[in-house]
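[INFO] parsing input record for ATP synthase subunit a
[DEBUG] input buffer:
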Amino acid sequence: MNRIILIRFLAVAVLILVFWIGTRRMKIIPTRMQSLAEMGLDFARVNIAEDILGKKDGKRFLPLITTMFFMVLFMNLTGVIPGLNIAGTSVIGVPLVLAVISYVTFIYAGLKKHPGTFLRNSLFPPGVPPALYIIVTPIEFISTFIIRPITLTLRLLMNMVVGHLLLVLFFAATQFFFFATDGGFKLFGVGTLVFGFAFTLFEVLIAVLQAYIFALLTAVYIQLALAEEH
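[DEBUG] output buffer:
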């Protein structure tokens, strides 16, 4: 148990609390919290699951995609909350676990729908001259079964780590110029403070975008596994 684990627990607790408050007393004329919860759920359902997978498969995988989206979002946002100041996804554990779940899910989806052809067509794409399989098959294996979980993990992790480091640099420089220098050097602190606040707003955008990208890519990988060409 350490600080990053506590932040993750806090993010999950707040996520559960938000949706519990928003959905405990559903009304025809929604309250603000109900509207917020419905808007978030509709975004995950319509703009991610159904847009990529269609209504039937989108409904089937919606719980997973919705959970990934909101879990990543709330853990990302802890990076810009004063007193927390680090994203729950900026240590490899959570990104890696979610990437492995995504990986297992799209392989499961492909094997269940195309039990006899999924792996064969993933490694030996139809229409390729047999002589080229010696080149194509290793590339398909690496790109499909190795690169996907690695890139899912690193994309989320690196974006959160870099954002955290930028904010640390700007605000640490602000403290240095304001309290450890004299004269005109203090003016540099104003510049670093302004950039720090600007990058904080940018980090909020990145937090939302990375949650969307992670859930979207998971849906895309599932869709590719379900595609009829398998």
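[INFO] The mean pLDDT is 92.
[INFO] shutting down worker
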